[in-house]
Write a structure and sequence with these properties.
The structure is a homodimer of 125-residue chains.
Chain A: H1 3-12, H2 16-27, E1 33-34, H3 35-42, H4 46-59, E2 62-67, E3 70-75, H5 77-92, H6 96-105
Antiparallel strand pairs in A: 1-3, 2-3
Helix pairs in contact in A: 2-4
The first copy, chain A, binds a DNA duplex (30 and 30 nucleotides) through helix 3 and helix 4.
DNA sequence: GGGATAGTTCAACAACTGTTGAAATAAGTC
DNA sequence: GACTTATTTCAACAGTTGTTGAACTATCCC
């Protein structure tokens, strides 16, 4: 993934409203939710939600699909995995031994972290 | 991690310049780089770099420390691990079986993805 | 202290973002 | 076709962001 593309994805998640929308859609994967349900659950004005959904769709993190009168939105889990892999590759590909040390220091539950990859020069970064 | 806090971190990475600076600092962890080196390596005007470094420091993703005449900046690897863990927990905690399926579909190298956590209700999310 | 180097802060400005209410589109129901 | 519901687009506006050159602060060296 290129940094230009990655920064667009981070931009999509840089608004608390959009992050909440995205998290809600991830929680409701793979069925997704229609716009009205999102608006109700997050207590957002329809017009404002629509603005943020557009941004999420343009980033690729969310897909929309008409369903009769409704529009159903779904989180793109593959793209989410991509961005996790991107961050992880940035972190560990240079110095696995350093990354390992930090993992032990940090209070993060290891179940939520990727394995430390073996060192090698050319990666998906 | 709260979503308000997470969105601030994503905001810090939402500019291509800042993402490039951060990646460079991650690459040079744990020694970091002084501002002038960053400016030279990324071909940025000092004043503009300073603006972005300030944003990165405020987000917590980067720390600065005076070193004589220079200011040395370092990436906060622990916070980076936190944000990876946050994304991962969002993704998998709901429906591991769904996440697993997507992982197999997506072309992402599994070495860069966290293990699929066992389902349980209350997580670091 | 005076001069050089490293880096930041300031002021100005154009460009972009997020919010809102009003109007428009799209699809179902009678 | 007229009516209702779901959602988006539009126009306006306030607020924020990113860029630049000029001025400032901090540190080192003589």
């Amino acid at each position: 993934m290129e940094s230009r593309y990655a920064s667009r994805i981070f931009e999509a998640l840089s608004s608390e409203v959009r992050l909440d929308v995205f998290r809600l859609l991830v929680k409701h994967a793979p069925d997704g939710l229609v716009a009205g349900d999102i608006a109700r659950l997050l207590d957002l004005p329809a017009t404002n939600l629509s603005f943020h959904l557009k941004a999420l769709v343009q980033s690729g993190l969310v897909h929309g699909e008409r369903e009769g009168r409704f529009l159903r939105y779904r989180a793109s889990i593959p793209l989410m995995l991509d961005i996790i892999a991107y961050l992880t590759a940035q972190c560990c590909s240079g110095r696995p031994e350093c990354c390992r040390a930090f993992r032990e220091e940090s209070g993060v539950d290891a179940r939520f972290l990727p394995p430390v990859a073996a060192p090698s020069s050319d990666r998906k970064a």
